[in-house]
Amino acid sequence: MGYLSTCNAESAIAVCDPYNCGFHRRKKPHKTKNNGEIREFAYADLVSATSGFSSGKFLGKGSHGSVYRAVLDNGKLIAAVKKTKMNCNIPADNEIEILSRVYHPRLVNLIGYSSDTLCENQFIVVEYMPNGSLYDLLHSASYKSPGWHMRVRFALQVAKAVRALHSSNPPVIHRDIKSSNVLIDQNWNARLGDFGLALRGHVEDVRFNCTPPAGTLGYLDPAYLEPADVSTKSDVFSYGILLLEIISGRRAIDMNHSPSSVVDWAVPLIGAGDFAAICDVRVGSPKDKEVVRSLMALAARCVRSDAGERPGIARW
Ligand SMILES: Nc1ncnc2c1ncn2[C@@H]1O[C@H](COP(=O)(O)OP(=O)(O)OP(=O)(O)O)[C@@H](O)[C@H]1O
């Protein structure tokens, strides 16, 4: 019991060769926790659902591939299809394996997968998020900057997503929590997506011990330098950065400011009790100052350099 429940957020506001390329040799798909079967799509169906992966259906490009909007099941299902090159260095199989075991309403959940006839590309079919990313909402001029109510709600929804991952058995460490991986669904709820770097297991597992540190600059835990350093507390650090970003409207790293790192700028201000200096000026003063203040205090604890001093999200 802790912050997430007492705040009642919704209303207040393979081992060393882990990606063994077994895409076409995959084990029987799991059922999701909501009991939906993970579907294996025919490649031809995905081609037709995305109008041949046309530019009109293109949603965006990430570091591992392109994402397309797909209309499936005679128009009854709108999904997003992530297309990546079949490559042992790309963890798509890992992403499917993990997503197939962690269904949660605050995640961008897996619907199915496919590969093309020559096994050159692999496809992950996930829930479609029509309202962009949290990064877009916070930083892009083409979106109206969200108000405090919405920001607090997003912050708590992402915390619930992370809590679901860390408290699953075995735990899942996302390793890439950042605002561009938080997508906004049709009801304007935040969902955590992109499990390309995620690890599922216990920290002492062999797979963990031979997976090099990874993540995104600005969100990456400075205490995560070696494979053996990985823990759920690295996600807690990234979540702390995300909180500071949500409250201040500043990017994790912004060269137009000095200091450029949101953590180096915000933590001393929080320490000095100067909460007002951190609040995003675009949204004015929060009505419920106490909630925003508690989130800032929580952010400061999450980004402590000593991982052992950070709170465990599974207990919030
Ligand atoms: N489920 C989805 N629904 C709608 N749009 C999506 C969905 N998933 C991804 N996108 C969009 O597709 C683009 C690429 O997403 P992707 O997850 O591949 O990369 P990224 O997270 O932006 O970058 P990186 O891979 O470097 O972390 C982004 O603009 C994202 O907003």
TrEMBL record:
Domain of life: Eukaryota
Gene3D superfamilies: Phosphorylase Kinase, domain 1, Transferase(Phosphotransferase) domain 1
Keywords: ATP-binding, Kinase, Nucleotide-binding, Serine/threonine-protein kinase, Transferase
GO terms for MF: ATP binding; protein serine/threonine kinase activity
Keyword Nucleotide-binding: yes
Residues the record lists as binding ATP: 83
Family label: Belongs to the protein kinase superfamily.
Name assigned to this protein: Protein kinase domain-containing protein
Organism the protein comes from: Gossypium darwinii
